[in-house]
Amino acid sequence: MLEAILISIATAATPLFLAAIGELVAERAGVLNLGVEGMMAMGAVTGFGVGLATGSPAIGALAAIVVGAVFSQLFAFLTLTLASNQVATGLALTLLGLGISGQIGEAYVGQPGIRMGPVFLGLDPIFWFSLLLLVAVAWFLFHTKPGLKIRAVGDSHVSAHALGVPVIAIRYGAVAFGGACAGLAGAYLSLVYTPQWVEAMTSGRGWIALALVVFASWRPVRVLVGAWLFGAITIGQLQVQAMSLSTITGLPAPFDSIVGALKAVPSQFLSSLPYLATVLVLVLISRNRRLALVNTPASLGQPFVPDR
Amino acid sequence: MLSVEGLTKRFGTLVANDAVDLVIKPGEIHALLGENGAGKSTFVKMLFGSLRPDAGVIRWEGNPVSIETPGEARALGIGMVFQHFSLFEALTAGENIALAFEGGGTGHGAIGARAREVSETYGLPIDPDALVGELSVGERQRIEIVRCLMQDPKLIILDEPTSVLTPQEAEKLFETLERLKSEGRSVLYISHRLDEVRRLCDSATVLRHGRVVAHCTPSEETAGSLAAMMVGEEVEGFSRASAAVDHASDRAVLRLNGLSLPAASPFAVPLKDIDLTVPAGMVIGIAGVAGNGQGELFEALSGEVLQNRADMVSIDGSAAGHMDIEERRALGAAFVPEERLGHGAAPAMALTDNLFLSRHGTDSALFTGTLGSILKNKLKAVAAHISETMDVRKGAPDPHASALSGGNLQKYLVGRELDREPLLIIVNQPTWGVDAGAAARIRGALANVARRGGAVLAISQDLDELFEIADAIAVMHHGRMSRPIPIEEATREKIGLLMGGADPDHAELAEMQA
């Protein structure tokens, strides 16, 4: 029972974590890409479609990574090369991604999908890969020269340019990584979480991922904590909702009254609980203003136009 | 070593550099002199590969070179110590240094060891693990210099290096520069501080409006003759307000009583227990190295940040600590912030609109008609009057604030506040980035406030300016303020020691011993 719950929590948390860790790298480089939801939707439809066509969920996931990265380069070209507004362009990317994925996915509606099965401890390969990714990203950002350059570009692109760091090239790379991660996160939804295609099946997870990055104050480990918390409460409230539908009777006195109290809670409140609790907890752990400001990329969202 | 012929750079219709020639010999300290906006920064950016010249030749050790990126400049042996903008506040000193080098680690391994070696050799102590955002400006400059020296440059470009230092820190810097010179390295020293240049530099090139107006030997010139070359005209003299008439009274126009303010961000400075009285008829100057709480003090006084206790700030006898900006203005106070665009003026709005924005509360009877409609013609008349009295030069009758040059906008902003005939004017960096002619006019206008019986609080990093206009100088250090030192007792040494953090009694003691 506990094992099953843990597995379902991990499955709920992984897409959020994947999307958020990619966005974290982009934002550390100073690029605010609000198109995560759209890139996830593209990844989801690609993963589903390619998985179905090839019969291999692994190939589906790889295709989703590539499509996410390529799709993100549209955003990168508009905001980095043409210096368009990042917020507006990101919103457009989300709408575009949802629209295109819906169009492509029309043929897949109602079709049974292909599922990526567990490989170790009841969990799928992408989950294990996401843990490796956490270690790799944390090490890369804080202990390697390219990671240092990413943080430098995000802190002050003017200074970085003056030192000869290729600001635009680094940002292209960071956005591509974010896109690849969002694509994989989308594929996780349509290959592992619920192996089928439903239009707009990302259902706001891209936005949650964006919020996670901010409330985790741009720290990789905190992103994982936030994603797990969200996953845990999502699963927890589903259990409670299921419980209130069932008719459990004859429990000992204290449990009886607890179940009774839980049944009285409106289900809408329970559904909103993961969002509320995640935001609340991450706000509390990021209340150290000094750390928060040190970790906040100072040039986030600002277009960079080198004067020549 | 380096020779430049006919270097030209245009930005649209503006010619920032017009056929600039310059020769730097090995082992010399060469000064590049000029007013703000004369084209000094544009010139060095071209030398360092951050800007691409439109015409002209750069020769390095006799060979024509094309410097496309800062990396290429470094490869040739040109190092640069920037005035601003090239350190990352959220990174450590070691990481900042490592970023300037290809390959290698992140500031802990070989690069860190080399940084320590250089910092010891040249007497420039740095802590590689310190977060740059938490360091003083002098410490930041040391990081920049160490980073530059680690590349073993043959030519070192320093952009206004002493503008952010205490006189004592500047002395240390001069020692380092002499040492570099003795090693056969050349230095291009950009400054508008003439005394320094005369003392330190072997030769000089003077720029005005993007053109070279003179090549000279600074030690053979006087400060006056150098200034005349820079400005192109004699700068009018200035007489202190109190020197003319004795009108200082006991009426305290501004009184600070234990003013304290916690830091608003990790990089901000908390204000600690500041007491100060600015009497009518006086100009009080606030000196201090940048980032010692001057900005925070201005925000607290202007009402951008409110105080915990109402009596921490009193304006003309009224406790104003809980009042907002508009209420403080109503008591007779006027404010000119440091940041002209975005703080002092809305950049994309016309001068008349900017006039209305700061005066609609105090002069609503003058500028608004029935139902609160804005009287445009009144605004135009007053704006024209301000432009005339302050000699604001503008391209259109009512341009956007951002269309004015820094000096002209500053004249307009000071004029806008003075036009109200305020009882108290608080100015932060009154003439920062302003040419000498405009600076003289602004200083004269401030002195007039005191002559009329008003009070002036001038926060400035420019000691020369404070010695020129202030009747007493108080010094800020780490958010604390010294007592105001009457101008007759104030010496550069004493103020310099206070800027470096010596306590006032100790400063006097040190001076007596000296």
How would you sum up this structure, described in words?
The complex is a heterodimer of chains A (308) and B (514). Chain A is mostly helical and 308 residues long. Chain A has helices spanning 2-28, 36-54, 57-81, 86-105, 125-143, 145-155, 157-163, 167-193, 205-215, 220-245, 253-264, 267-285, 289-295. Chain A has one domain (2-295): ABC transporter involved in vitamin B12 uptake, BtuC. Chain A is globular. Chain A starts with a helix and ends in a 13-residue tail after the last helix. The mean pLDDT of chain A is 87. In chain B, strands 13, 16, 17, 18, 19, 20 and 21 form a 7-stranded mixed β-sheet that branches. In chain B, strands 6-7-8-3-9-10 form a 6-stranded mixed β-sheet, with helices on both faces. In chain B, strands 2-1-4-5 form a 4-stranded antiparallel β-sheet, covered by helices on one side. Chain B starts with a strand and ends with a helix. Chain B has 514 residues and is of the alpha/beta class. In chain B, helix 12 (351-359) crosses helix 14 and helix 14 (376-390) crosses helix 15.
Summary of the model, kept short:
The complex is a heterodimer of chains A (308) and B (514). Chain A has 308 residues and is mostly helical. Helix content of chain A is 75%, strand content 0%.
Structural class of chain A: mainly alpha
Q: Greatest chain-chain interface?
A: A-B, 29 and 30 residues
The CATH architecture designation of the largest domain in chain B is 3-Layer(aba) Sandwich
Question: Radius of gyration of chain B, rounded?
Answer: 24 Å
Keywords for this entry:
heterodimer, A: 308 residues, mainly alpha, ABC transporter involved in vitamin B12 uptake, BtuC, 13 helices, 75% helix, B: 514 residues, alpha/beta, Rossmann fold, 3 domains, seven-stranded mixed β-sheet, six-stranded mixed β-sheet, 21 strands, globular
Task: Please render the helix and strand layout as text.
The complex is a heterodimer of chains A (308) and B (514).
Chain A: H1 2-28, H2 36-54, H3 57-81, H4 86-105, H5 125-143, H6 145-155, H7 157-163, H8 167-193, H9 205-215, H10 220-245, H11 253-264, H12 267-285, H13 289-295
Helix pairs in contact in A: 1-5, 1-8, 1-9, 1-10, 2-3, 2-4, 2-8, 2-9, 3-4, 3-8, 5-6, 6-7, 9-10, 9-12, 10-11, 10-12
Chain B: E1 2-11, E2 14-24, E3 29-34, H1 40-47, E4 55-60, E5 63-65, H2 70-76, E6 78-81, H3 93-98, H4 110-121, H5 137-149, E7 155-159, H6 167-182, E8 186-191, H7 194-200, E9 203-208, E10 211-216, H8 223-231, H9 241-244, E11 252-261, E12 271-279, E13 283-287, H10 294-302, E14 313-315, E15 318-319, H11 325-330, E16 333-336, H12 351-359, H13 364-367, H14 376-390, H15 406-418, E17 424-428, H16 436-451, E18 455-459, H17 463-469, E19 472-477, E20 480-481, E21 485-486, H18 492-499, H19 504-513
Helix pairs in contact in B: 12-14, 14-15, 15-16, 18-19
